[in-house]
Amino acid sequence: MADADDVRALALALPRVVEIESDGFDFRVADKGFVWSYPERRPGQRRVIRSDIAVLYVGDEAEKQALLLGEPDLFFTTPAYDGLPLVMLRLARVDQDRLRELITDAWRMRAPAD
What we know:
The chain is of the alpha+beta class. Helices cover 30% and strands 29% of the residues. It has a six-stranded antiparallel sheet with strand order 1-2-3-4-6-5. A hairpin with a 7-residue loop joins strand 3 and strand 4. The chain is globular and about 40 Å long.
């Protein structure tokens, strides 16, 4: 079981990561987001920042579909993210090792090669 503090500790341990001011968490490398709090939008209501759900950059549609189909208890998406290489992760259902792997993979895909 993980939470926003775990995401923060893991993300900030990676090179060149900066945290952007947010109601939840928002981490970037080289000005590119790789993990942030889910901004839930419901019709007719204000956006709510969900720090119990992380949005992760996954690189491409094939990886996105593999995660969604392979681990539906951990990952989900919404129509707002259709066509984008992003998935939502339920933090309460992921262990520390898996969370570290996911955040590190997202960071690697966004960090400069050097």
